[in-house]
Every structure is written in structure tokens, then in C-alpha cells.
Amino acid sequence: MKLRSLIRIVSMAFVLGMAQVTWAETPTNTIKNLLDAVRSYNKTASVAANANAQKVVEGTLPIQDLSKQVLGPQWEKLNVNEQKGFVQLLQDLLHKVAYPKSAEFFGDLGIEFVGENIMGADAIVETTVS
């Protein structure tokens, strides 16, 4: 595996770790569903065709909380409309860049789920990637 690929995987794990991920089922099933949704995203399809993938991703990753974490202390300096605008900007970025690139990246990876460690509201889903 190339170093660049490894960095992307670590980056995704970091984002998932930063956000308060909502566990719809078990953490492993939630991550499987998230990856399946990302893999199903098709950058040449219509917005409607990708709506289900977007719904799964945005239902799993709390974009509002992620926005607050991205801006850190600057978040509180924004008024409500500016905060809403930033959340929308982040969602637009995900739609136009992150979803298509993630679908391309994760599409060919073999991902095996090998373990799960739940610690209160946090969890680690151990995987191997080939």
C-alpha cells in the first residue's frame, strides 16, 4: 500500500474519531454501512441517484458537531447565520469533493473488520486493509 493511501485511511479514522459518530447499530455495522454508502457514490450520477449514500453518511457523521470542531474557538465568534453558512459550506465540500474522492479511494480496497472495542460512547473498529 502506498504511503499516500495510508495517510488517507488515517485521515478518515481521525475524522471519525473527532466526530461524535452516531452508532445506528453496533459500531462495526455502522462503519460497514458508512463504507458501503461511500463506495456506492457515483460521481457521474445525478444528485438524486446519490441521495441515499449522502443520507447514510450525513446520518452517521454529525456535520454540525464536525463544523464546530473544525473551527474550534472561532465557532463561538460566529453568529447563527454564519454558523449555518459554514455548516452548509462543509456539506457542499463533502458533496463535491469528499464523497466522489472517497468512493474512488475505497472502491477497490479490501477491508476486513477484525475487532471492536467499545468504551462508553467511544468505540474502535479494528480493520485490515488490502
Description:
There is one protein chain. The chain has 5 helices and 2 strands; from the N terminus they run αααααββ. By secondary structure, the chain is an alpha+beta fold. It has a two-stranded antiparallel ribbon. α2 runs antiparallel to α3 and α2 (27-40) crosses α5.
Distance between the termini: 7 Å
Major sheet: size, sense and barrel closure? 2 strands, antiparallel
Written as H for each helix and E for each strand, in order along the chain, the element string is HHHHHEE
Per DSSP, what share of the residues sits in E-state strands of 2 or more residues?
5-15%
Radius of gyration: 15 Å
Proportion of residues in helical segments: 55-70%
Architecture blueprint of SSEs:
Elements: H1 3-18, H2 27-40, H3 51-60, H4 63-71, H5 80-107, E1 111-119, E2 122-129
Antiparallel strand pairs: 1-2
Overview in brief:
The chain is α+β, with helices and mostly antiparallel strands and about 130 residues long. It is about 60% helix and about 15% strand.
